[in-house]
């Protein structure tokens, strides 16, 4: 019996987490459309032998660019089973709120929150036809904060709310979930202190996120959920000595 190839669209595909999501899904037999505003980052993505990869250059905060990218994906695959809303401005620190410009605030909200809204809006017809799913990449900063991260935290908190709102609006045809990563790194110079502060005993890796995304893509009875990927950090009480 022939098994139909599933199609995924990953935004922010040229970044740390996005690139690993692309690689992991390709390795699992998915056909993947990789979307990023950085053409050079897209060109660095490699497809395994037999892998089916489409590179789409677009800014998720630009609705006309999103619409063009979706038209190209439709021509290429004719279906969409999974949308991974991963694109975002990753640096959470935007400075003191009294010095934060409206332009900087708006850009962070546009990419980290409006972008997932636009991608979801334009992907719904294809996802509904395939009974597909959406996985939003939020952050533990949606539920806890460091100083001077107001724009990032607000956007990621909004993305968590968008997740459960769309899960209700789009179900049962489309499932919508989120992952909320904590400290994720592929650096080889992390210290023992970096790892030991996590109850799981280590800092997270991009593959941890990719595996969680793949799990949620196949978890047919899970929708509206936020899967926290932080090695237990948000459950750890921290007191000064």
Automatic annotation (TrEMBL):
Membrane-crossing residue ranges in chain numbering: 212-229
Enzyme class: oxidoreductase
GO MF terms held by the record: 2-(S)-hydroxypropyl-CoM dehydrogenase activity
InterPro entries (UniProt xref): NAD(P)-bd_dom_sf, Sc_DH/Rdtase_CS, SDR_fam
SUPFAM superfamilies to which the protein is assigned, alphabetical: NAD(P)-binding Rossmann-fold domains
Record EC number: 1.1.1.269
Keyword annotations from UniProtKB, A to Z: Membrane, Oxidoreductase, Transmembrane, Transmembrane helix
Pfam families associated with the record: adh_short_C2 (PF13561)
The keyword Mitochondrion belongs to this UniProt entry's keyword annotation: no
Family classification: Belongs to the short-chain dehydrogenases/reductases (SDR) family.
Protein name (Swiss-Prot/TrEMBL): 2-(S)-hydroxypropyl-CoM dehydrogenase
Organism annotation: Jannaschia rubra
Upper taxonomic lineage: Bacteria, Pseudomonadati, Pseudomonadota, Alphaproteobacteria, Rhodobacterales
